[in-house]
Write a structure and sequence with these properties.
Blueprint lengths: L2 H20 L8 H12 L2 H14 L14 H14 L4 H39 L3 H31 L3 H7 L2 H24 L7 H12 L5 H26 L1
Helix pairs in contact: 1-2, 1-6, 2-3, 2-4, 3-4, 3-5, 3-8, 4-5, 4-6, 5-6, 5-8, 9-10
Length: 250
Amino acid sequence: MNILAQAFLCALFVTVAFIDSHTFQTHIFRPIFVGPVVGLIMGDMATGFSVGVTVELMFLAVIFVGTAAPPDPTISTAIATAIAVLGGGGTELAVATALPISFIGQIATTFQNSLINVWFMHRAESAALKLNTRGLIRNNTIYPMLINAVLYGLPTFLAIYFGADIIRLVIDAIPSSIITGLAVGGGMIGAVGFALLLTTIKTKNMWPFFIIGFIFASYLKVNMIGIGLLSLALCGIYYQFVIKKSSQGN
């Protein structure tokens, strides 16, 4: 598959992912899904999965609060994955790329929510007053969704297509200390995001399970699949010896 087709398919997927984030919320817009899909399109699904997991951790606790749009993980993961594959792989390069691109996505999201969507809503209200069903549907669903192709799909296409030939020159021109620094910063963002999630857990009797997981991951070097299986086993044990026993006692 040539770079033109790859750039087009990646842009199409990013557009669909943003439409999903505004409609059905099946979460195909999350980095852990975007990375493998873009990696598959670019011909290196393993790198895509690694990038997706890394960027997912970076944005794990980043949420949309009110009118404050957070840095966007979807477009940053797509472009970072493509650049990582074109550059020979490596999550360090992907993290260094994902951080600045996420802020570009943030600007696009803010512009869409504060200006474009407001304009379409006024048009939809006008159509509703005139009992114009077609106008209401177009301005409330179709047109706003198509804007995603312009704000997110087009930049993805341009970044992948025109960046393919010069990506090696750009990588070689970036000092390794800068890439390392950005990668460390991205790792810190992931740690902060995970810490924010942990603060939401108020049940103290669950903390031993997190400590067990930490020991297996940090000291025994068990990978994420092993940690997931361990979690399932602990859930089963907790259900059998705590929840089920408590319900039988009542």
